[in-house]
Amino acid sequence: MSTSTLISHFRQASKQALPKISSLLLAPTLLTRTASPLLISKRALTSTALKRISAAVPGVNPLRQYSTPSLTIQNEKTNVNQAPALATAAQDESMSESASPSEKQEKRISEIKDAKLIFNQAFKNVQDIHGRENMKFPKEIIWLMGAPGSGKGTHTPAILRARGITNPSISMSSLLATPECKELINKGMMVSDGKVVENLLHALLDCEPEVGVLVDGFPRSEVQVECLKLFHERMHELRKEFKHTPLKDFFPRPTFRICVLYVDEEISVSRQLMRGKLIQEHNAQVMRSGKGEIKEERVTDFDEMLIRARYQIFKDHYSCLLKLSKIFPFHLINAVGSIDSVMRIILKEFEYQSSLELEHDTYEAISHIPLATKIGIHARQDLIRRLEHYCETEPEIFSKAVRFIDQEVSPMIARHAISGQALVRSDNTILSDPKIVEVVISILSERGYAVTMDERVHETPKRVDPKTFEIILERSHVYALNVRFPQHHIQPLEQKF
To answer: Coiled-coil intervals in this record (predicted)?
Structure first.
């Protein structure tokens, strides 16, 4: 068959195939959330779509097929900032199976070198705009990731409350929804890691640095993980540079926390399908009544295959974050339970920890002082040991303490039984003996009372020395025991007429 005949046959097959290809590309199962020319390019075709095309048009045999469905799946909140990770997903997967350990190490070194170039250029671009002395980033930054359906939007306020953060959270999807980024997407191009980092640095500089900030959706790739490490190092460099200047308070020691909200795949699927169903019901009600606002219906809330592909993307991102778990505090939150139970876990996880938040020298200087939350762990055993010791080895002191309680403390406690507090004042000289005081407090503590003791010295003028005219004072000691116990509540009877 001649060349001209082949060309003629190919043109005829193409004319027959184009209408069918267009109808398949516009099918609901292939649409993503944002319509753009990117959707009709080859890279937007999944293996499922290509099989449909081949079946519909036998004469068309695509030259290149993408076997990774995740290449067409967009994140719940963003379709841009995960692009670098998605673009290399197929290559990374094939390499992990066939590459030797040395090749993997070389790839890792290459990624680190690329990250340094990307971060240094992005940081320089931002610094040229703001100035070196104005690179004042928040002291505490929480980097939040979450499985699809884990409730990031629901639980973010709880995380902010737990850490006392009043800055609005930074969503990477919102940062990358700029006209410049959208233009790149519309041209079928990806937003580079450098642009992602640069936009993030600008957003961090817009925050109040004293109260911290939460970043939702970063890092999402190997290169971004390396950039995060470099950013932490750069903040330490800035702190060292300005430490002995009037600006030192604006460059504190940085605190990075990695937080991941986790649910397993089946729960993720069921939650997203339920969310899609509820949104459809809501929108139908709005259409019928004309009241309320239409909510966005996400394609990924209706197709189980897409949902599972999104979950796989989350797992890939999580494996990147694990490399940070040995460097920064890593909070893995079980988000499977109810909203209230998950919030309790978050509040517990993000409790104040002085070893993480104080400067090293400051912490070392005060760390020997026991924590209030741990001071009572062995207090019960120590109390029993003290009482047994005095009863067996010093019975006279023990007897004096018991007698003092019977004669002076118990009557006052009985008199103030309803109030839950009794103040016992005594000038009994036996309380000048520290051992008796220790036994008195130990006995009352063992019986369930909370006791504090205060010693006061009263000076009373008695006479004047006729030679020196010095006023001679007489001193007396008064001991005050503040005894607290559970208050008894009396419910008043209602009068009936």
So the answer is: none
